[in-house]
């Protein structure tokens, strides 16, 4: 995949579509992302961020930067902090793919949920704000913000299981028995549709949050590619799933970490605080939602691996490293199913 950004083409387009855009433009690609390549744009007056669809052969409905732009624009002024959306380009002849430009926000990003450089009190406050924002996402009035048609009707988990099974099969590079067994378990243990339907982020975790430079406060939620209308418990289970992973650069989890000593909430505390904020007495079938999240992440990482092998990944080396986690997520999903 060509990762070079045609800055002249971007600047020419932006002068006509981004209010106040002027001056020469330079671009630096952010490292680490595996889906939609993202760039820091610098001009003499100010900085921006550009997020584009990858080039090459892509799976249907994947890398939907138009949906990312739409949902964040709709959330402007809501209780969910997002960057200001400035302009979306549907014309893929400008730089070879669709893209959008948004405000650049000065902030901190923590790749590790253990946040090693902070105090316990600071960590706890950030995690509490993470909990608050997740509950706020699920409390958004989708009709009021114009997102009533942002996702199809029907049983979210059944629909998502079917979608990601097809995506997994389309990018499968070898047989993984645990993944086959997990898919069968999900289909056989699907809970009844309880009628809950809210905005869901789809990949809500600490490293997708921008934290204020001088305060334990979330300034923006990023990476809305998987967002849709669905079941809020899947978002909550996604947080718990991530924390169950190894406390390493690749795992980005809290496995084996003394959370109490670090000022980090336990899974039960985080879930309880979320339920309190949403007025819930508890969550039934949480093991299903947890197993579902492991399955979906395994399918996503399989797609990352396939793009890396095909040369379409944003960061091919990192893509292959992440692809090695597919069997681990499948195994963890089966274990979660039996919890």
Automatic annotation (TrEMBL):
Protein name: Phosphotransferase family protein
PANTHER family, sorted: AMINOGLYCOSIDE PHOSPHOTRANSFERASE DOMAIN-CONTAINING PROTEIN (PTHR47829:SF3), HYDROLASE, PUTATIVE (AFU_ORTHOLOGUE AFUA_1G12880)-RELATED (PTHR47829)
Aminoglycoside phosphotransferase domain sequence ranges: 27-250
Pfam families xrefs: APH (PF01636)
Superkingdom of the source species: Bacteria
């Amino acid at each position: 995949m060509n990762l070079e950004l045609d800055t002249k083409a971007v600047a020419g387009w932006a002068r006509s579509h981004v209010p106040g855009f002027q001056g020469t433009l330079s671009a630096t690609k952010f490292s680490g992302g595996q889906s939609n390549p993202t760039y820091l744009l610098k001009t003499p007056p100010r900085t921006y961020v550009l997020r584009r669809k990858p080039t090459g052969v892509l799976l249907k409905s994947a890398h939907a930067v138009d949906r990312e732009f739409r949902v964040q624009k709709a959330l402007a002024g809501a209780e969910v902090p997002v960057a200001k959306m400035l302009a979306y380009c549907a014309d893929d002849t400008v730089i070879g793919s669709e893209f959008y430009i948004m405000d650049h926000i000065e902030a901190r990003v923590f790749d590790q949920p253990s946040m090693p450089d902070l105090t316990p009190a600071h960590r706890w406050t950030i995690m509490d704000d993470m909990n608050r924002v997740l509950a706020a996402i699920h409390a958004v009035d989708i009709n009021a913000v114009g997102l009533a048609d942002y996702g199809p009707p029907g049983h979210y988990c059944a629909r998502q299981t079917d979608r990601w099974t097809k995506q997994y099969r389309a990018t499968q590079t070898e047989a993984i028995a645990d993944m086959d067994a997990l898919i069968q378990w999900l289909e056989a243990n699907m809970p009844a549709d309880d009628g809950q339907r809210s905005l869901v982020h789809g990949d809500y975790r600490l490293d997708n949050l921008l934290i204020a430079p001088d305060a334990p406060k979330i300034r923006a939620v990023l990476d809305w590619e998987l967002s849709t209308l669905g079941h809020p418990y899947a978002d909550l289970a996604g947080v718990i799933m991530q924390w169950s992973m190894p406390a390493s650069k690749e795992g980005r989890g809290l496995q084996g970490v003394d959370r109490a000593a670090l000022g980090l909430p336990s899974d039960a505390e985080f879930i309880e605080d979320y339920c309190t904020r949403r007025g819930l007495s508890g969550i039934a079938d949480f093991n299903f939602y947890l197993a579902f999240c492991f399955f979906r992440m395994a399918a996503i990482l399989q797609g990352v691996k396939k793009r890396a092998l095909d040369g379409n990944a944003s960061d091919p080396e990192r893509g292959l490293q992440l692809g090695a986690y597919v069997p681990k997520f499948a195994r963890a999903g089966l274990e979660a199913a039996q919890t």
